[in-house]
Amino acid sequence: MNLFNTIVIGLREVWAHKFRSLLTMLGIVLGVAALVAMSALIQGMENGAREAMVAMGGADKVLLRRQAVPAYQEHLADQAPGRTLLDAVALRQGAPLLREVSPQMSVDEVVLTRNDKRCNPAECVGVTSAVIEMNLHRLAYGRFFNEIDEEKAHAVCVIGTGIRDELFGKPDEQGRAIVPLGETIYLSGQPFTIVGMFEEYLSEKDAKEKALRLAGELPKVESGGPKRMRGFGRGGSGGWAFYRKNMTVYIPLNTAWMRFRLAGDKTGIPDNRLSDIDLKVKDFDRLEDALQQARNVLLVTHKGIEDFTFETQENQLEGIRAQVKNYRLTGGFIAGISLLVGGIGIMNIMLASISERIREIGTCKALGATGGDVFVQIVVESVVLSVLGAAMGVGASFALVELLTTLSPTANTPIITLPAVLVGVGFSAAVGMVAGLLPAFKAASLPPIQALRYE
Amino acid sequence: MALLELRNVSKIYHLGGEEIRALDDVSLDLGNGEFVSIIGPSGSGKSTLMHILGCLDTPSKGSVKLDGTEIASASQRELARIRNRTIGFVFQFFNLLPKLNVVQNVELPMIYAGLNSRERRERALQALDLVELGNRLKNRPSQLSGGQQQRVAIARALVNNPKIILADEPTGNLDTHTGELILALFRKLAAEGRTVILVTHNPEIAAVTPRRIEIRNGRIADNVDRKLAGLDRIVPNAAPAVAPA
Ligand SMILES: Nc1ncnc2c1ncn2[C@@H]1O[C@H](COP(=O)(O)OP(=O)(O)OP(=O)(O)O)[C@@H](O)[C@H]1O
Ligand SMILES: [Mg+2]
Q1: What is the pLDDT of residues A187-225, one digit of tens each?
Q2: Does A332 touch chain B (CB under 8 A)?
């Protein structure tokens, strides 16, 4: 007796009781729909988080962080130098395992003004050209700072498109390209010339929408306040990261030092400490070695005081993973319970089904069915029920995801993945199989004569 | 050696301390190609005997040998194989599977025998032609008359080409005319050389068979009741000449 026949007979049995079968499958349908839809939502979140990470500079970026001196060095805390340009230079010279070192001196509480317009940038930072590679920037117009800008501390800046939008207007609304090269804007009152502008950074979802808008298939952006969105960030998947990146103003490092630190410090003693030093390693596989090398160099420049630490994106990834794992567990738990209930429903109906078919089972045995044949038949029937339910559940999950996205537009487009579908179907098949075991065993071990005489 | 050998077979049921001997020390030989009717009053143990002959039930005591194989010591698997290949069972209430159509019902024993679908279809059609139902292939059992259903059941019993056909009151639920049609079929099968064993209450049917066995209170009666066996009647069709065991 081959499997194909068994499955055909099983399907026929399910078809013979359409409504009852449907009710039985409901638990499995819900379980699988919940499982697949849930994992689609989680996948969307995960993707959003990853996109955001790339927007922030990619996985091989390492941040050199400030840290309180360890307890055994507390008496030296006063002498802790903090991160200075010296560190950056020393790292460039003394740590060949590093590819890029990007010192940054941020200028806090900057207000940008032009005529009657003003805005606050997400960050206004003095940088060297290493920042381009470090933060994965792409210059769309003009140029970045050259050595003369750096040496003479020229009052020049490179802006992101967000700043352009705020101070010069949005090209979408004005209906023309706006490239403010050569224009003057004021950084906290000091005139700066715009020499370059980055391209507009968009999440995949926003980029798609924009392309559609350009093609005229979507209405223009409705102005009037930002839409409320949930998920990782606002305004698109990983949106805050893209928003920040677009709201950037860069000035030469020396300009930041000369114009904002040297001249503008309230205490009278200029603060020469950098706000950030970002690193990229040559060979990601030798991350540990490179960090050890950097540490050695920095221990020299810091006179042995450990007031710094490294933060790799690995840590961030770890965070994302932990969160995703949490969601997965919760979702899996709910779906699991639902599938369990579905399985009990199937077992119940299979038990009912065999007791109403005892005479049929007896007849089959009289015709030569072995206990094994009957066993396999019942188990297959149970699996057919659950797999049909799972198939419907997968269908329902598409509808569910559609419903969820229209009810509350999430920032991260849910993505139904093949593994989730396979896990859902596989798990239900397993549930169906386990649920079928007891009824199948009961049916198979029934003596033929007793089954035939059953009333 | 006889095809079927029963030696001191008993079937004992225990019902609340009371012992019911459905079969009591039955010894019986049935030869290859015999056409036998089993008669006897209701509750005498005919069905019990048939079930034991058909390997559907096992005796409480005694030995049953089929073709030299001891049934009492055979495994469930071996018994299923014997029921599938060697024995064709025809029931009083037809026992067709209601969700399968006529051909599918007839194909069922061949599915358990592991035949491929082409051969199954071919042999099912042959068997249905034999019982003159080649035109009702796609009908469900519930769409057939009782006589037609019994013919399907006979076709089903025949498809695996069994040596032995067992029929427990095959005409018990049919009118006289249809009963005669069914009986004609059994006579044809017996004439082909198959061993055919019928349980019947109908003296006319018993009269047709060359050998009659009467069961009374679970025992084989020494001499058959001439009235029950239809021997007091004028038999219109002479019984086919079948060699006794
Ligand atoms: N499962 C059982 N439990 C207890 N007693 C049983 C069982 N099966 C059969 N019997 C008893 O065995 C005896 C023989 O039954 P059997 O069915 O063989 O009679 P029968 O000759 O076929 O009768 P009928 O002509 O009415 O069909 C009866 O007394 C019956 O009550
Ligand atoms: Mg009976």
Answers
A1: 999 999 999 999 988 877 777 777 777 777 655 554 444
A2: no
Chain A residues inside the 8 Å CB shell of B83: 365-368, 448
The whole-angstrom separation of Cα A434 and Cα B211 is 53
Any chain A CB within 8 A of the CB of B77? yes
pLDDT in tens, B70-86: 988 889 899 999 999 99
Looking from the CA of residue B44, the nearest atom of ligand 1 is 21
Instruction: Judge if the beta carbon of residue B14 lies within 6 A of ligand 1.
Output: no
CATH for the B31-57+75-225 domain, from 3.40.50.410, 3.30.70.100, 3.40.50.300, 3.30.70.20: 3.40.50.300
Burial of A332 (0-12, 13-18, 19+ CB in 10 A): middle
Which chain B residues are Cβ-neighbours of A377 within 8 angstroms?
none
Interface of A with B in 430-449 (CB under 8 A): 447-449
Label residue B22 exposed, middle or buried (CB < 10 Å: 0-12, 13-18, 19+). Answer: buried
C-alpha dihedral, B167 to B173 to B174 to B180, nearest 10°: 30
Residue with tokens 């800046």: A157
B74 interface with A at CB cutoff 8 Å: no
Q: Could B114 and A12 be called an inter-chain contact, meaning their C-beta atoms sit closer than 8 Å?
A: no
> Coil, strand, or helix at residue A64?
strand
Map residue A278 onto helix, strand or coil.
strand
Q: In sequence order, what are the residues at sequence separation of 6 or more whose Cβ sits closer than 8 angstroms to the Cβ of residue B2?
A: B29, B30, B31, B32, B245
For A387, counting Cβ atoms within 10 Å of its Cβ (0-12 exposed, 13-18 middle, 19+ buried), the class is: buried
Please check whether residue A359 touches B, CB under 8 A. yes
| Backbone torsions φ then ψ of A293, nearest 5 degrees | -60, -50
Q: Which residue has the tokens 């017996």?
A: B190
Q: What does the DSSP 8-state code read for residue B31? A: -
Beta bridge partners of A31: none
Contact B113 A368 (CB under 8 A): yes
Per DSSP, the residues of A93-142 read: HH-TTEEEEEEEEE--S--EEETTEEE--SEEEEE-THHHHHTT--EEEE
Backbone angles phi, psi at A278, to 5 degrees: -105, 145
Residues B125, B97 contacting (CB under 8 angstroms): no
What's the ipTM?
0.89
Distances (CA, A) of B91 to A363, A448, B150: 9, 14, 8
Q: Which of residues 150-169 of B touch A (CB under 8 A)?
A: 156, 160
A7 touches chain B (CB under 8 A): no
For B20-47, the pLDDT digits (tens) are 999 999 999 999 999 999 999 999 999 9
Paired tokens of B176? 């006289």
Ligand 1 pocket member B46 (CB < 6 A): yes
Alpha carbon distance A436, A441 (integer Å): 8
Closest ligand 1 atom to B48 CA: 18
Judged by a CB distance cut-off of 8 A, whether residue A369 touches chain B is: yes
Neighbours of A20 (CB within 10 A): 13
Chain B: give the shortest CA distance to residue A439, in Å.
19
Q: Is the dihedral of CA A353, A357, A358, A362 positive or negative?
A: negative
CA distances from B104 to A123, B112, B119 (A): 78, 12, 13
Residue B46 Cα, ligand 2 centroid: separation in angstroms? Answer: 6
The tokens 């036998």 sit on which residue? Answer: B36
pTM of the model: 0.72
**Domains of chain B, residue spans:** 31-57+75-225
Q: Which ligand is nearest to the CA of A452?
A: 1
